[in-house]
Structure formats: C-alpha cells, structure tokens
Design a protein that fits this description.
The complex is a heterodimer of chains A (325) and B (388). With 325 residues, chain A is mainly alpha-helical. Helix content of chain A is 77%, strand content 3%. Chain A has a single domain, classed as Orthogonal Bundle (ABC transporter involved in vitamin B12 uptake, BtuC), CATH 1.10.3470. Chain A contains 15 helices and four strands. The radius of gyration of chain A is 20 Å and the shape is globular. With 388 residues, chain B is an alpha/beta fold. Chain B is 45% helix and 17% strand. In chain B, helix 5 links the parallel strand 3 and strand 4. In chain B, helix 6 packs across helix 7. The radius of gyration of chain B is 23 Å and the shape is globular. The chains are: A mainly alpha (325), B alpha/beta (388). At the A-B interface, helix 3 and strand 4 of A face strand 2, helix 4, helix 5 and helix 7 of B.
C-alpha cells in the first residue's frame, strides 16, 4: 500500500492535487490567481514537450508555433466566425494534430541539430503566416477573443479559470505518467538511449517518435486555445521563437524526463519574473543569476537533482543504521 | 487599503486624538500617496518607445513630489516592464489593479499591449491613459480608456491636406509589414477618398529587407504617380529614402511620423533632403514662433529632459508627459482619486496644452487632438524645418 502511494503515479498526483486544492489559501487576490492560471497553462505545454524532449529525446524549438496555432485557431473560429468555443477548440486541436502528423513524419527523420533547425523553421513559418495574414489574425497587433462558454455557462474570472486549469493540469499529468509507465513509454525511453538498439529489439522508432510529437503538439494546442480564451487577447508574441525557447527552458530547468519537473519548471519560470519585477533595472541580471546558479548546482534540473540528493541522503541514513545494528 | 479605512474612521471618531496623531506623524505620513501605475515596453523590440516614456514618468513624478505633490499628497509611481508582450502587459495591469491598487494607469507603449489590457480596465473601472498610436484604441470610445499620441489616421490626413495644397492627387504608397506600417496603410487607404487622393500603386516590403529598389522601380514606372508616401519606422524608411534617390525618382516624397527622429536623417545620409513628414511639434520646439500656444510647454520639457538624462528628447517620451499630466490635472479637478470622478475629469479636459498637442476631450473623443497637433515638417540641411 505504502509503496503504491510512494510511486509517482499516485503519490505525486495526490501531492499535486493537494497543492492545487490548498493554493487558494495563499492567493490573496485575482492577480495571484492570474499568475497561477498562467503557471497551469505553461505547465500543460511543458508536460507535453517533456514527453518529446525528456523521454523520446527529440528536441523541438517550434512548440510556440503549436501553442499559437491553438490560440489563433480558437480565436478566429470562435470570435470571427462565431463558432461555439468548445467546437472551435476541438476543431483546432484536431487540425493541429493533423498538421503535426503530416510535418512530423519528414521532420523526425532528422536528428540532433538538424531536428532543432527543422522544428525552429516550422515555428518561424507559423509565426510569419500569423503575423502577415492580418485579414484573419489581426496581424502584429493581435486579435481579441470571446470568453469561453459551454451552453449558457460563461467561463469568466480568474477563480473559475483556476479550478478549470487546475483540473486539466491534473489530467495532463495523469495522462503523461500513464503513458510513461506503459509499454509505449518504455519504448520511448529505449529510443532515447539508443535508437538502433531500440529498433533491434523490435520498436518502431519512427512511429513512436511521431506519436509523441503529435501528443506534445496537442498538449500545446489545447493550452494555447484555453490561454487565448482566458486572456481575451492574443498577439504573435505567443507564437514567436522566443516563446519556444522559454518553453524548452522550463522543461530543462525543471528537469528532463520528469513530469513533475516540467510542472515545477513552468511554475518557477512563470512566477520568477513576477517576483523579480520589483528589482526593476536589475531584474534581468537576477533572473540570469538564478538560471546559471540552478544549472551549475542542479545540473539535471530542479526535480531530478533534488530527488537524487534526497535519495542519497536516505540511503546513507539506511547504511548508518545498518552499520550500527 | 484596510489600514487606511481604519485610520480614517479612527480620525473621524476621535478628532482630538487624530490632530495629535497628525502632528506626530506629519502630513506626508497621514496622507496615502496617489499611486500612478504604469506598464511600459522598457526592454524588448519596442524599447525605443518604453525607455523615454519610463524616464519621463520618473523625472516628472520626482519633480511634482519635490514641488509638494498633488492636493498635498505625494505621487508614487508603480512601473513594470511589459517588454512589448501583450500577455505580460495584461498580467502587470492586473497586478497594478488588484495588488498595487493604483489610482490611475498610464501606459501601454504598443497597440497590442493596450488592446490586451482594455477589457481589464473596463471591468475594474479604473481610468487608463494609453501611450499607443492606433486609432482602434479610442474608436469606438471605451468608457475608461484615453490616449495621448496622435493617431495614424491623423498622420494620413495631415499628409493628404498638404498634398491637396500642392495639387497632388495620384499617389503611390509603399509600406513595411510591421504593426505600425500596416495600421497606417489601412488608415490612409480609408481616408484617401475624403481628400480626393487616389492611390495608384501600393507596394510593400518585409521587415528585414535591405533593398527596396524593385518596389520603387515599379512605382517609377506606374503612369500618373505625382507623389510617394512611405509608412513605416526603423531602418526600412531610411533604406527606401536612399533607394528613392538611387532609382532617380524626383517626385515629392512623404514619410510618416514614424521616422520623426534624428536617426532617420543620419541613416539615410543626404537622401532625406526635401522629404516631408507630419510630426509632433516637439521636434521643432525651439524653432516655433513665440506666439505658438505649445511653445512654452515644449521648450520646458525638452530642456528638462535633455539636461537630466544627457540624451536627445524623443516624441515618445512626450506621450508619457501628456499621460501623466492629464492624469494629475484630472485628479486636481476631481479633488481626489475617486476613480469615476477622475475619469469624468479626464473626459472633460479642455484646452490642455500638452506635448502632443492641445487636448480637448469629450464623451465622443477620448484622444482630444485635432490636425493642429501634427506639424508638417520638411528636412532641410539635415534638420527639421516647419513648412509654412
């Protein structure tokens, strides 16, 4: 029973659920809720991206493109053409999944730097299309988005969004953890350590890579759609290359191949600029120092490094006890 | 805010004790400061807007406080760097409203950032003075939203009026693909017919392009073109200007207010000679006639800014001066920081002499400027001169 709780699938999920449930006790006003919602949305993207980067070992520098397609797809369908937001979200998600499926096949044949270049190019193309096609997207000035509604119920206000995004985050974590523990997840990890080795034992590398690419694009697209409805406005900044880098940074900062690491990375890197805003001119310097410091002292990312530290302490304690006995 | 309330009721209930309290703590402490909230693109791609805006706000909040504040209360500036990102601007606006509880918001260097924040300020019912240019900010009118810079539509109108006076009616348009360029192009297309202007050629170039001779050659070969108008800012217009001379076009050449900085003249070398553009009067502050209503304000701002920061004054800083001073003026008239009263006072602004022009706000006009806010300038001898 205890062992079952200690496994990340149940123990970790319960801990995350507890954090989400208890957090409102310290969220004093809607500004805090707003930051929490942004953390949640970023975390959902990062969980998907972490499946791709952390587990399957494939880099993507174009995920802001999928995020942006989700945001703009929902914005255009719901705001310009008056689609019900839920239908717009589902249609957009499907279209993004299809796009990822089509471009993923040739792109994922590439490796290392070439893969990075190709995904970067994909992101840049999406960015250019969105900022140029101003008839649909509003161009560089952006587009406003109607609130999310299901039937007669309008999803508005930070507090309601907090619970919605919180619930979705739990679902995203649960999906990711299950995927990793499944045969597919083991195949992905095998792929990460050696593609040739994996193929030798009968894993279809191309198919697995493509699948996880599509899944991560879907995570980003859904978060993008919801983010657009939540903030009521999207600009191409959300699609820009810099945002892709931010997402990858969150994943690496939190810890590769750790779903909770992705959540922690998103949380830290979303709230840190808010905390540092009071430093004014020194904001960027402090931010840089925190990043460098973490990478030097916790090189595997926050969560895996701390977990390792904790484990080695515990095993040392156990050794001590054994010696005394 | 709870502590203020408590303090107030305490004072009301025990007048004598309150007097003693005021004596001990001094008037500055007894009064809460007036909080001016700002979110500006101090870093990032639009930092050329946000940086002078931020400096202007800091400089003048200090100056006002040194002179005793407003209504006996000090001003407190709460400013965040939104880095040109609409999402950040939105979060910071929320922070200003919910966390810092500011009395009025001045900011939004770009149109995108401003538009992202408008739903929030409308819901929170807080006066908001935007520093961004596009006409969509105040048209249609939003109850709590005002803006100080001249709009791109006015720039088009100013140019077309000048063209009319020179009997030019068939023009070619060349613009970039940035936010500013696109918005201005659309506005010019929209108002051209009101001035009997016909746009016979419409060329565009990309943000990173380094040569526009192809587009200009096409314009040169278009029959009947009498003048050329370039909408854009940054390096693009300087390259267009250089190419314009290289291709050998001799038609009158107009630029937008987007190039109203010395950098443009420097970048285009001698090619900018004879180019006309609409711009705020700040560029020619010292050259204005003595009876110009704006002269005193412009000269004072220019000299204070330049002597304090040891760098050239920029029109964009002027937008922030106007935003701050309009807010201060309204707070004085409202006799406090009651948000609805301050909003009404801003809307009732009449004959306010600012950097961007003379403001006359009304319930149907939340910018309050007319075409006199723009001056038609011509570049002569590497400097701005006023077209008479």
């Amino acid at each position: 029973m205890l062992a079952h709780l200690a496994s990340p699938r149940t123990g970790g999920l319960l801990a995350l659920a507890a954090v989400i449930a208890l957090l409102p006790l310290v969220l004093r006003n809607s500004y805090f809720y707003d930051v929490a919602v942004l953390v949640g949305l970023n975390a959902i993207v990062c969980i998907g991206l972490n499946l791709l980067i952390g587990y399957a070992g494939q880099i993507s520098l174009g995920h802001a493109g999928f995020f942006g397609l989700g945001a703009y797809g929902s914005a255009i369908l719901a705001s310009r053409y008056g689609w019900p937001p839920l239908a717009a979200l589902l249609a957009t998600t499907f279209a993004v999944a299809l796009l990822a499926f089509i471009v993923g096949r040739p792109i994922l044949r590439l490796r290392g730097h070439y893969l990075a270049m190709a995904t970067l190019g994909l992101g840049v193309i999406i960015f250019m299309v969105i900022s140029t096609e101003d008839k649909f997207t509003g161009g560089p000035d952006g587009i406003s988005v109607v609130p999310f509604r299901i039937g007669g119920f309008v999803l508005q206000g930070e507090r309601i969004w907090y619970w919605v995004v919180g619930a979705l985050l739990l679902v995203a974590v649960w999906l990711a953890l299950n995927l990793i523990e499944s045969p597919t997840g083991r195949a992905l990890r095998a792929l990460h350590s050696s593609e040739v080795g994996a193929e030798v034992v009968g894993i279809n590398a191309a198919e697995h890579k493509l699948m996880v690419f599509v899944i991560s694009a879907v995570f980003a697209s859904v978060a993008g759609s919801l983010g657009a409805h939540y903030s009521g406005f999207v600009t191409p900044a959300k699609v820009a290359f810099l945002h892709s880098i931010e997402l990858v940074t969150m994943v690496v900062f939190g810890g590769l191949a750790s779903t909770f690491g992705a959540v922690v990375g998103a949380a830290v890197l979303t709230t840190l600029p808010q905390l540092l805003a009071t430093f004014e001119d020194y904001e960027m310097m402090v931010f840089g120092a925190v990043m460098i410091g973490t990478m030097i002292f916790l090189p595997r990312g926050v969560v895996p490094s701390l977990a390792r530290l904790f484990r080695s302490h515990r095993s040392a304690d156990a050794d001590n006890k054994a010696n005394k006995a | 805010m709870k502590s203020t309330l408590a303090k107030n009721s305490f004072k009301r209930g025990f007048a004598a004790a309150a007097a003693a309290f005021a004596l001990i703590s001094g008037p500055a402490l007894a009064q809460e400061p007036i909080k001016i909230g700002a979110f500006l693109s101090v870093t990032g791609p639009a930092s050329f807007l946000g940086d002078p805006e931020q400096k202007t706000l800091e400089l003048y909040v200090d100056k006002i406080n040194a002179a005793g504040g407003v209504l006996g209360r000090k001003l407190k500036l709460v400013s965040y760097d939104s880095a040109g990102d609409a999402e950040k601007a939105r979060t910071f606006a929320k922070r200003l409203i919910d966390q810092d509880k500011v009395d009025v918001i001045v900011g939004g260097s770009t149109t995108g950032e401003t538009m992202a924040v408008i739903p929030l300020v409308e819901a929170a019912q807080i006066p908001f003075i935007s520093l961004a240019g596009a006409v969509v900010i105040t048209e249609p009118v939003k109850k709590w939203v005002f803006k100080t810079p001249q709009s791109d539509r006015m720039a088009c109108e100013k140019i077309f009026v000048d063209m009319q006076s020179r009997k030019l009616s068939k023009i070619a348009l060349i613009s970039g693909n940035g936010a500013f360029d696109k918005s201005m192009r659309a506005q010019c297309m929209d108002v051209a017919k009101n001035y009997g202007i016909q746009i016979v050629a419409d060329e565009t170039y990309g943000a990173g392009d380094t040569d526009m001779t192809a587009q200009l050659t096409k314009i040169k070969n278009t029959a009947g073109v009498q003048a050329v108008l370039n909408a854009g800012f940054g390096a693009g217009p300087a390259i267009v200007t250089k190419n314009y001379r290289q291709v050998g076009i001799t038609l009158p050449f107009y630029q937008s207010h987007g190039v109203a900085s010395k950098e443009y003249i420097k970048l285009s070398g001698g090619a900018a000679e004879g180019v006309r553009l609409p711009a705020g009067a700040l560029l020619v502050a010292d050259g204005l006639p003595a009876n110009d209503p704006q002269r005193a304000v412009l000269v004072a701002y220019k000299h204070e800014y330049e002597s304090h920061y040891k760098s050239d004054v920029a029109t964009f800083g002027g937008h922030a001066w106007d935003g701050l001073m309009l807010a201060v003026d309204a707070i004085k008239k409202a006799g406090g920081t009651d948000k609805a009263k301050v909003r009404d006072a801003i809307e009732a602004t009449h004959g306010f002499v600012g950097i961007d022009g003379v403001f006359n706000m009304s319930p149907t006009d939340h910018m309050g400027l007319n075409l006199s806010a723009f001056r038609m300038l011509e570049i002569k001898g590497g400097d701005w001169t006023l077209v008479k």
